[in-house]
What does this fold into?
Amino acid sequence: MKRGLVLEGGAMRGMFTCGIMDVMMEAGLQPDGIIGVSAGAAFGCNYKSGQMGRALRYNLRFAGDRRYAGVWSLLTTGDYYNARFAYHVVPTQYDVFDVEAFGASPMEFHLVCTDVLTGRAVYHRCDEVNEEMLEWIRASSSLPLVARVVDVGGYRLMDGGIADSIPLQYFQSLGYERNVVVLTRPAGYVKEKTGILPLVKVFLRKYPRLVEAVARRHEMYNAQLAYVGQQEAAGRALVFRPDPPLEIGHICSDRAVLQRTYDQGRRQATERLAQLRDFLQ
It folds into this structure.
């Protein structure tokens, strides 16, 4: 039986996910595979490389640094999170990603992007760390209006959460029968139709299928939440949801808030560690 870890996105809400992952790593819990969306991919790759605390560490270090993220980067490069510095310079020079450990680990690592030409999900398995893999991660995390379309692997891609926000069903289709699912929205959350749709229609009008996917995203997301609940009730998914709701937003440079969000994830994982062990082992 294959055991998986499914990580929703949510930009800086992903600090909650990092806290959960670090407790799992410290406890020696090793799923057979991980699938991450957006921030779930950007932070989740550290599980396969075994680098506890890394995602929190570099986000605290570069919070407020305009080389890393901010309006200055958005205006000068077209990306709120600087494509070169955040995705290529930081992991190779400042907080080095463990390429060898990632490649040596038997754990599978998958991520989700959205094809801007079709509006459909593109799933990619990453087995080694190189420039292309880092671009796949950037593509999975490239939110409409605050990031550019990413060309990689023969696709034109953006944020995976547009087409498949919680890829539990996809992972099950690969044979992952028992999955820990980390959500970054609280219990009872219902997604509403996005208020940025008029801007998306203007700025991404070259990609009508992508615009359609953005317009339907709330329906897709709410259906996926219902499915996660069904799988949880059936004992096939162990689900983490922030309780209380996270105070952090998509974007945050407040180090104290980043730390508190991470700590909230750690507390919840620590409280449920015995349950995690039973479920995965």
